[in-house]
Amino acid sequence: MRWHASFPLALVLGAVATAAEPQFNRDVLPVLAAKCLACHGFDAHAREAGLRLDTAEGATALLESGRRAVVPGDVAASELVRRIASTDADEVMPPPDSGKELSAAERDVLRGWIAAGGRYERHWAFVPPVAVEPPEAGPGGRPASHPIDRFIAARLAEGELTPSPEAPPEILLRRVHLDLTGLPPSIADLERYLDAHAADPEAAYRDAVERLLASPHYGERLARWWLDQARYADSNGYSIDAPRDMWKWRDWVIDAFNRDLPFDRFTIEQLAGDLLPDAAMPQRVATGFHRNTQINQEGGIDREQFRIESVFDRVATTGVVWLGLSIGCAQCHDHKFDPVSQRDYYRLFAFLNNQDEPTMKVPPAGEDVAALEAERSAALAAVHAHVKSRASELQAWEATLDAGTRGMLPKPAQAALDIEEAKRSAEHRRTLFAAGIGVGDTAFETLERRWRDLDARWTAMPTTLVLEERREPRRTTILVKGDFTRPADEVSPGTPEVLHALATTAPTPTRLDLAHWLVDSANPLTARVLVNRVWQRLFGMGLVETENDFGLMGSPPSHPELLDWLAVEWMRRGWSVKDLHRLLVTSRTYRQSSVGTSAAAAADPSNRLLARQRRLRLEAEIVRDVTLAASGLLVPTIGGPSVFPPIPDGATALGQMRRPWQTSTGPDRYRRGLYTFVFRATPPPALAVFDAPEGFTTCTRRNRSNTPLQALTLLNDTAFVEMAEALAAVIRTDGVVAAFRRCTARHPDDDEVGVLSGLEPIEAARVLLNLDETVTRE
Amino acid sequence: MDDATWLLRERTRRHFFGGCGIGVGAMALGGLLAADRAVAAPPDPLAVRPPHFPPRAKRVIYLFMAGGPSQLDLFDYKPELAKRDGQPIPARFIEGKRFAFMDSSHRVDLLASKRSFARHGESGAWVGDLLPHIGGVADRLCFVKTCATDLFNHAPAKLFMNTGTGQFGRPSMGAWVTYGLGSECADLPGFVVLQSGPRGPRGGAVLWGSGSLPSAYQGVPLRNTGDPILNLSPPAGITPVSQRRVIDAVSRLNRHRLEATGDAEIAARIAGYEMAFRMQSSAPELMDIAGESAETLALYGIREPGEATYARNCLLARRLVERGARFVQLYHTNWDHHGGPTENLETHLPQVCGEIDRASAALVLDLERRGLLDETIVVWGGEFGRTPMGEKRESTGRNHHIDAFTMWFAGGGFRPGLTHGETDEFGFGAVDRPTHVRDIHATLLHQLGLDHERLSVRFQGLDEKLTGVKPARVVTEILA
After folding, report:
1. Is the pLDDT score of B7 beyond 50?
2. Residue B146 exposed, middle or buried by CB count within 10 Å (0-12, 13-18, 19+)
3. H-type helices in A13-134, by residue range?
């Protein structure tokens, strides 16, 4: 049911795979990785019998037994072939107690590969992508002009399949609206599009795409995708789970997508914005990416332990998000499958181990924090100076006080009086002064007012969490088994040896060098990984199905040339994320119907070859957005502090601390889902039930579960009931057809109208908000 | 589920456009239901799945004592502690060890237990005087005195006990079990969480989360006030008749779309609405314990049936497993007796013991007499135990301790009347048969017919398992 239940692609696509001879990367490596390399792989400590099968040298080496696992071209002499075929429980590989077993097809792959010469290839993802010319369209297919369609059509043609026809215009418009902005088309949008489509379908679609890419809601849609990967939430996590302010960083992400900040620059600013020579406030805000880690505020903890936990998370997240590698596995030992040693791991760790983690004030545009702070300090100093200038009068006044008059003074003034005169601070004196002879002192009152205004401005200024490089670097060592109490050899910052070289001008490479290295055009991974993840968003499944693992255990790409072409093309076009989306959504492959043909269904049940689009249940936040928009309640304001829409009573009481939830009553009640405040320990139920991540760890693919609790939410949750009431009002004025179109974009047929017309408006509205189609991108 | 999608779509299509030879417009929508049932292998994530091998037990009730109960005042009788009260523990025990509160209240002086201990039943198991009822059923319990975990702060340790790792984002035990076996309950969730005590457990929803598994496997909290399940009741002003009409219409229109698209996810959604509707009556019925006999209520110590107590939750747990729930987890706070003003071993430990003692024993007895204990595993324990050394605070207390603590198991093929493992003279560490949390996980899964090595899911390049990457063994010695 899910991607993890995958088989080697060549086996899945047996009907269309053409080459009879097993290819190492495509066919053999997946079998070795899944079944052999845990004990015969890169990790020397875990290696059994001195045999490693991840390299040709290892596989063909003379073993203690006097035999060789692989004798190229000689099946009979190859110990591996004998052992995998053995029926003796003591001999057969993998051993029965490993819980692993080779299928007959997998044994055939290994045997066939050895027979054909047992050649090794470098793991495809570690070889830089090279763009090949898109193939000509396959036989029988309409000549495809879009490069993506040419790659897809060629592969379909091999399987004697054809793409599906284009989706009906209103379905396609809704699809591209939801994918690019997360909001459904209004009826006006639909009418305009259908008119334009009747005149010139191509121009109509092109214009719609341009309009959506230019919409400020595009940035919101892409931001949520990135927030998942950045493990964003609005609280500190662990047991205390106190609220935090991170929305300035979230707004930076929205803005970055809206102004189409190239992805290389987007990367550099988030990982090392503070180290840029021209670092301004936005670049420093951007470093919040790696402050989205949890903070443990539980009593009795060792702070260093949890600081290191957060660095572990930063290394793992960087590895998964940019490199598509489970580098985190090498925290405790050399990676079992991928050529990442524990030393490599701690060299990456060293880049991310050298920061302080301050909370930074973020001034509104035009406000200069330093100037305001200076002004505020000066204003306070002026107040203090004025008080000092009348010190003797203040003393005289104090001498007149008796117990009765003292008792009438404000509490802080009384507290100041309790302190011995000589030991009072300037603030104590100011407090006293204000309560006493300051009353009626207009000079004092003017100075005091000025200070209060400045202080209020200072206090009201929002904050965000950022990274800040330490002047004195921390020493980084390998930690034995990832245990921070067991430091071993010291290491310096560096990148994994298996990948391209790190460029630096500094004596010790910096976090900025790491950021540049990630988006270096020589990096074989970043562009492929991100292109694949965008593809996954638009098609429901990546070209590489294991979107978070491009390592040896990952699945090979279904369309390797297309993946490489996209990666190279994206870098060539300057890493523009909008451009990449434009490229993908204008393809016929994207535009085709999600209801395919029976021939394709039989030949390619999981639709890896893309003879159709896919129906995808909407993400949690978009379920909210679509229903808000359809009911007319949506308040489309962009950015700002996270908000508190209605949630069920007691929903934030399931953790240690019962967190207050002051339900927003104004416009904030109807904001888009991505602005809903998320406490990690007690996430909003309506989001959690639709698989929204809680921000504990990077999420590169959401589950799309389908449960009765989702039904209860859409039926009965206060927020959805409120939307249903609003939609009922629409039905009363505009009728059920209009309401149906607001939810699904299409015209209902007679049956559908019949069912809905037989209901009270509130019932019909509730039905519409509960339709599978309403919460699905078709 | 793409396979099923296509199969379903094809069959549906053939049924309507091929085999029947008539257009859908002419066909009553009501006929579709039968067609669905006939052809769709519904992609129900909670459908019952066969275990890896014949199971010994079918379900679990996990009594989670949140905060870390003091085994030294409840089960692990150590006369030596009394003799050396106030003396420092020999250095060899604590050299290189880390503890919580190292920089504040942590101390190395041994603390005698104020409790008295006695042997119970034919098995002669040691149980302290604060748990007389649990002592009374000792012959039915399997005590493990040498449980060990890796993490000594509450939230990480709770996470570790539930998910096998201190890292967030991993599936919990209940999620794994429902993922592996599905649920036998058609109108209630398969994995249910109940809470009692002054507040929720530290860590919150992540403790019963589904991590990388679909949210269908998340624990569903049964709430003590208002709707027992979130959003269970129709909104105010909506009559049951209207609610039914809405659900029927949703199903009709969804079937219509199912037939147009052949997407089996729609069939799953239709089934989801039916279950949601059934839950609207089955959940209140579950919560209504007024029909239980006075004798049963007395057995559990329930005085006021409407009161949200641990005792009522124990009874609800029995009612849940009777109805086919797979995994029921009860959290009871607060066992964190450090010696602060509200966490005194001398006053607050007796209080919390009083809250759980009778009902925990009653649950075992009640399951037994109803013939359910044999196939139900009852687990009792916290996220860690407490140190033999006292803390320097306002009252009497002990620090968090991870090297050895006591848990007990009942039913489900665990060997009754057994005390497994032995700790040193101070109860600091195991001298015989250490039993790591990973071993406990492997053993629980084993009893349910699941091989902990095979119950895995690919996530971020790893075959994720409850027992993680380090070795874990099924503790066959504690099995009958």
Report:
1. no
2. buried
3. 29-35, 56-60, 79-85, 104-115
Angle at which helix A708-716 crosses helix B240-261, to 10 degrees, equals: 120
Which of these, A737, A739, A738, A711, lies nearest to A725 by C-alpha position?
Answer: A739
User: Which residues are CB-neighbours of A229 under 8 A, at least 6 positions away?
Assistant: A317, A321, A533, A698, A699, A700
Taking a C-beta distance cutoff of 8 angstroms, is the pair B289, B315 a contact?
A: yes
Calpha distance A307→A469 (Å, rounded): 15
Pairwise CB contact (< 8 Å): B250 & A485: no
Nearest to A587 by CA among A646, A521, A633, A538: A538
Which residues between 323 and 342 in chain A have a beta carbon less than 8 angstroms from any beta carbon of chain B? 325-326, 328-329, 337-338
- Structural domain boundaries in chain B: 2-45+239-272, 59-224+308-478
- Residue B396, CA distances (Å) to A82, A769, B390 in order: 66, 57, 7
Q: For residue B243, how many other CB atoms are within 10 A of its CB?
A: 19
Please tell me the pTM assigned to this model.
0.84
Decide if A456 is inside a domain.
Answer: yes
- HSE on the CB side for A59, CA within 13 Å? 23
Q: Do A429 and A491 lie in a common domain?
A: no
Residue A144: band (very low, low, confident or very high) from pLDDT cuts 50, 70, 90: low
pLDDT in tens, B260-304: 998 888 988 998 899 899 999 899 999 999 899 999 999 999 998
Provide the token pair at A673.
Answer: 């889902």
A233 and A348 together in one domain: yes
Cα gap A36→B340, rounded to integer Å: 54
Say what percent of chain A tops pLDDT 70. 96
Contact A641, A462 (CB under 8 A): yes
Mean pLDDT of chain A: 91
How near does any CA of chain A get to the CA of B96, in Å? 9
A656 to B216: CB separation less than 8 angstroms, yes or no: no
**Listed range (A634-648, B187-201, B220-234, B452-466) with the worst mean pLDDT:** B452-466
* Conformational region of residue B344, where left means phi above 0, alpha means psi within -120 to 50, and beta covers everything else: beta
Q: Do B216 and A1 touch (CB under 8 A)?
A: no
**Torsion sign over Cα A499, A501, A506, A507:** positive
Strands (E), A129-214: none
CATH number of B59-224+308-478: 3.40.720.10
Co-location of A419 and A445 in the same domain: yes
Provide the residue range defining the domain that includes A12: 3-121
**Which one, of A81, A541, A518, lies nearest residue A271 by Cα?**
A518
Do A342 and A485 fall into the same domain? yes
Render A79-111 in DSSP notation, one character per residue: HHHHHHH---TTT-SS-GGGT----HHHHHHHH
Residues A419 and A333 in one domain: no
Mark whether A233 and A342 lie in a shared domain: yes
* A80 and A115 Cβ atoms separated by less than 8 Å: no
Q: How many domains does chain A have?
A: 4
Distance from CA of B364 to the nearest CA of A (A): 27
Q: Quick check: A605 and B3 CB within 8 A?
A: yes
Q: Inform me whether the C-beta atom of residue A757 falls under 8 Å from chain B C-beta atoms.
A: no
β-pair partners for B463: B458
- The strand ranges marked E within A100-235 are none
Q: Which amino acid is at B95?
A: E
Residues A422 and A307 in one domain: no
